[in-house]
Protein backbone atom coordinates (compact mmCIF):
# COMPACT_ATOMS: atom_id res chain seq x y z
CA UNK A 1 0.00 0.00 0.00
CA UNK A 2 1.44 3.37 -1.03
CA UNK A 3 1.52 6.30 1.33
CA UNK A 4 0.21 9.57 -0.06
CA UNK A 5 3.73 10.88 -0.52
CA UNK A 6 4.94 7.71 -2.26
CA UNK A 7 2.01 7.79 -4.66
CA UNK A 8 2.49 11.50 -5.30
CA UNK A 9 6.19 11.15 -6.12
CA UNK A 10 5.61 8.11 -8.32
CA UNK A 11 2.80 9.65 -10.34
CA UNK A 12 4.80 12.82 -10.98
CA UNK A 13 7.79 10.89 -12.31
CA UNK A 14 5.85 8.60 -14.66
CA UNK A 15 6.07 10.08 -18.15
CA UNK A 16 3.11 8.04 -19.37
CA UNK A 17 0.93 9.19 -16.49
CA UNK A 18 1.98 12.81 -16.96
CA UNK A 19 0.90 12.68 -20.61
CA UNK A 20 -2.46 11.12 -19.70
CA UNK A 21 -3.01 13.69 -16.95
CA UNK A 22 -2.17 16.54 -19.30
CA UNK A 23 -4.73 15.40 -21.87
CA UNK A 24 -7.36 14.90 -19.18
CA UNK A 25 -6.82 18.31 -17.62
CA UNK A 26 -6.97 20.07 -21.00
CA UNK A 27 -10.23 18.34 -21.89
CA UNK A 28 -11.80 19.29 -18.54
CA UNK A 29 -10.59 22.89 -18.65
CA UNK A 30 -11.98 23.30 -22.17
CA UNK A 31 -15.39 22.20 -20.84
CA UNK A 32 -15.48 24.55 -17.85
CA UNK A 33 -16.81 28.10 -18.25
CA UNK A 34 -14.57 30.80 -16.83
CA UNK A 35 -14.64 30.79 -13.02
CA UNK A 36 -16.93 27.75 -12.78
CA UNK A 37 -16.70 25.49 -9.73
CA UNK A 38 -15.57 21.89 -10.10
CA UNK A 39 -15.52 18.79 -7.88
CA UNK A 40 -12.45 16.57 -7.95
CA UNK A 41 -13.98 13.22 -6.98
CA UNK A 42 -11.29 10.94 -5.61
CA UNK A 43 -8.80 13.78 -5.60
CA UNK A 44 -5.78 11.76 -4.52
CA UNK A 45 -2.96 14.04 -3.42
CA UNK A 46 -4.46 17.10 -5.10
CA UNK A 47 -2.44 17.23 -8.32
CA UNK A 48 -5.44 17.93 -10.53
CA UNK A 49 -7.12 20.15 -7.94
CA UNK A 50 -4.06 22.39 -7.74
CA UNK A 51 -4.04 22.76 -11.54
CA UNK A 52 -7.73 23.68 -11.71
CA UNK A 53 -7.45 26.16 -8.85
CA UNK A 54 -4.53 27.81 -10.67
CA UNK A 55 -6.86 28.39 -13.62
CA UNK A 56 -9.38 30.25 -11.48
CA UNK A 57 -11.78 27.39 -10.72
CA UNK A 58 -12.78 26.90 -7.12
CA UNK A 59 -12.16 23.21 -6.67
CA UNK A 60 -13.96 21.05 -4.16
CA UNK A 61 -12.03 17.90 -3.29
CA UNK A 62 -13.44 14.61 -2.04
CA UNK A 63 -10.87 11.99 -1.06
CA UNK A 64 -11.91 9.09 1.21
CA UNK A 65 -8.35 7.78 1.69
CA UNK A 66 -6.84 9.21 4.87
CA UNK A 67 -3.27 8.86 3.57
CA UNK A 68 -4.08 10.67 0.33
CA UNK A 69 -6.08 13.34 2.12
CA UNK A 70 -3.28 14.09 4.54
CA UNK A 71 -0.78 14.62 1.74
CA UNK A 72 -3.30 16.68 -0.23
CA UNK A 73 -3.61 19.00 2.77
CA UNK A 74 0.16 19.59 2.67
CA UNK A 75 0.54 19.84 -1.09
CA UNK A 76 -2.41 22.23 -1.49
CA UNK A 77 -2.03 24.11 1.82
CA UNK A 78 -1.80 27.56 0.18
CA UNK A 79 -4.89 26.97 -1.96
CA UNK A 80 -6.82 25.57 1.01
CA UNK A 81 -5.94 28.65 3.04
CA UNK A 82 -7.18 30.89 0.20
CA UNK A 83 -10.29 28.66 -0.16
CA UNK A 84 -9.59 28.10 -3.85
CA UNK A 85 -9.50 24.42 -2.86
CA UNK A 86 -12.17 23.24 -0.42
CA UNK A 87 -12.19 19.76 1.12
CA UNK A 88 -15.67 18.27 1.51
CA UNK A 89 -16.74 15.23 3.57
CA UNK A 90 -19.19 14.15 0.86
CA UNK A 91 -19.73 14.99 -2.82
CA UNK A 92 -23.23 16.09 -1.84
CA UNK A 93 -21.73 18.99 0.11
CA UNK A 94 -21.23 21.09 -3.03
CA UNK A 95 -22.94 22.16 -6.24
CA UNK A 96 -20.72 22.48 -9.31
CA UNK A 97 -20.59 22.81 -13.07
CA UNK A 98 -18.42 19.78 -13.53
CA UNK A 99 -17.08 16.68 -11.78
CA UNK A 100 -13.75 15.14 -12.64
CA UNK A 101 -12.65 11.65 -11.62
CA UNK A 102 -9.17 10.93 -12.89
CA UNK A 103 -7.00 7.81 -13.00
CA UNK A 104 -9.46 4.95 -12.57
CA UNK A 105 -11.36 6.26 -9.55
CA UNK A 106 -14.60 4.83 -10.95
CA UNK A 107 -12.94 1.44 -11.48
CA UNK A 108 -13.09 0.95 -7.71
CA UNK A 109 -16.91 0.82 -7.86
CA UNK A 110 -18.77 -2.42 -8.47
CA UNK A 111 -21.76 -0.49 -9.84
CA UNK A 112 -22.19 3.14 -10.86
CA UNK A 113 -25.98 3.60 -10.81
CA UNK A 114 -26.17 4.98 -7.26
CA UNK A 115 -23.08 7.12 -7.82
CA UNK A 116 -24.54 8.84 -10.88
CA UNK A 117 -27.83 9.37 -9.05
CA UNK A 118 -25.91 11.17 -6.28
CA UNK A 119 -23.84 13.17 -8.75
CA UNK A 120 -27.03 14.33 -10.46
CA UNK A 121 -27.68 16.31 -7.27
CA UNK A 122 -24.19 17.82 -7.43
CA UNK A 123 -23.93 18.85 -11.09
CA UNK A 124 -25.93 21.73 -12.56
CA UNK A 125 -28.12 20.84 -15.54
CA UNK A 126 -26.00 21.10 -18.64
CA UNK A 127 -22.89 20.40 -16.58
CA UNK A 128 -20.74 17.32 -16.91
CA UNK A 129 -18.91 14.39 -15.37
CA UNK A 130 -15.55 13.62 -16.95
CA UNK A 131 -13.78 10.44 -15.91
CA UNK A 132 -10.75 8.48 -17.01
CA UNK A 133 -11.17 4.73 -16.60
CA UNK A 134 -9.08 1.67 -17.30
CA UNK A 135 -9.75 0.53 -20.83
CA UNK A 136 -11.05 -3.07 -20.93
CA UNK A 137 -10.05 -3.40 -24.60
CA UNK A 138 -6.38 -2.52 -24.05
CA UNK A 139 -4.56 -5.26 -25.97
CA UNK A 140 -1.34 -5.09 -23.95
CA UNK A 141 -3.32 -6.57 -21.06
CA UNK A 142 -3.99 -9.70 -23.15
CA UNK A 143 -0.67 -11.10 -21.88
CA UNK A 144 -2.26 -11.52 -18.44
CA UNK A 145 -4.31 -14.60 -17.55
CA UNK A 146 -6.97 -12.50 -15.77
CA UNK A 147 -7.66 -10.56 -18.99
CA UNK A 148 -8.11 -13.70 -21.08
CA UNK A 149 -10.20 -15.40 -18.37
CA UNK A 150 -12.62 -12.47 -18.23
CA UNK A 151 -13.02 -11.73 -21.92
CA UNK A 152 -16.32 -13.62 -22.10
CA UNK A 153 -17.63 -11.79 -19.01
CA UNK A 154 -16.79 -8.50 -20.67
CA UNK A 155 -18.61 -9.41 -23.86
CA UNK A 156 -21.70 -10.86 -22.13
CA UNK A 157 -22.05 -8.63 -19.06
CA UNK A 158 -20.07 -5.51 -19.91
CA UNK A 159 -17.91 -5.71 -16.79
CA UNK A 160 -15.82 -7.95 -14.55
CA UNK A 161 -13.70 -7.71 -11.41
CA UNK A 162 -10.08 -8.72 -11.10
CA UNK A 163 -9.58 -11.12 -8.19
CA UNK A 164 -7.10 -9.09 -6.17
CA UNK A 165 -6.92 -7.14 -2.94
CA UNK A 166 -8.14 -3.94 -4.60
CA UNK A 167 -10.94 -5.68 -6.56
CA UNK A 168 -10.51 -3.38 -9.54
CA UNK A 169 -13.46 -3.59 -11.93
CA UNK A 170 -13.33 -3.19 -15.70
CA UNK A 171 -16.31 -1.82 -17.61
CA UNK A 172 -17.27 -1.29 -21.22
CA UNK A 173 -18.26 2.30 -22.03
CA UNK A 174 -21.81 1.08 -22.73
CA UNK A 175 -22.13 -0.43 -19.25
CA UNK A 176 -21.13 2.86 -17.62
CA UNK A 177 -23.47 4.81 -19.92
CA UNK A 178 -26.42 2.61 -18.94
CA UNK A 179 -25.64 3.15 -15.26
CA UNK A 180 -25.58 6.92 -15.79
CA UNK A 181 -29.13 7.00 -17.17
CA UNK A 182 -31.49 8.77 -16.82
CA UNK A 183 -29.46 11.59 -15.26
CA UNK A 184 -26.47 11.73 -17.60
CA UNK A 185 -25.89 10.98 -21.27
CA UNK A 186 -22.57 9.75 -22.66
CA UNK A 187 -21.49 12.57 -24.96
CA UNK A 188 -17.94 11.64 -25.87
CA UNK A 189 -15.59 8.66 -25.68
CA UNK A 190 -11.86 9.12 -26.21
CA UNK A 191 -10.16 7.29 -27.84
CA UNK A 192 -12.41 5.54 -30.32
CA UNK A 193 -11.89 2.80 -32.88
CA UNK A 194 -8.38 1.34 -33.04
CA UNK A 195 -7.25 3.71 -30.30
CA UNK A 196 -9.19 1.64 -27.79
CA UNK A 197 -6.78 -1.22 -28.44
CA UNK A 198 -3.67 0.89 -27.83
CA UNK A 199 -4.52 3.17 -24.88
CA UNK A 200 -4.60 2.06 -21.24
CA UNK A 201 -7.07 4.79 -20.25
CA UNK A 202 -10.30 5.89 -21.87
CA UNK A 203 -11.98 9.24 -21.17
CA UNK A 204 -15.77 9.29 -20.83
CA UNK A 205 -17.68 12.58 -20.88
CA UNK A 206 -21.21 12.53 -19.47
CA UNK A 207 -23.57 15.47 -19.85
CA UNK A 208 -26.13 16.23 -17.13
CA UNK A 209 -29.60 16.07 -18.68
From TrEMBL:
UniProt cross-references to Gene3D superfamilies, sorted A to Z: Vaccinia Virus protein VP39
Protein name as annotated: Methyltransferase domain-containing protein
Organism lineage: Bacteria, Pseudomonadati, Pseudomonadota, Gammaproteobacteria, Lysobacterales
InterPro entries in UniProt: SAM-dependent_MTases_sf
Amino acid sequence: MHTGEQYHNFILTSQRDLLVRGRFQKMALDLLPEGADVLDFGAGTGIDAKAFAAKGHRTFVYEPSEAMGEYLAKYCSDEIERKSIVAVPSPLACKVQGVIANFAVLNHFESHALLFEELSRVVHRGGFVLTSMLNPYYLSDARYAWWRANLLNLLLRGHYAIDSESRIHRFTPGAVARAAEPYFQLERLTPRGFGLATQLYMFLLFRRI
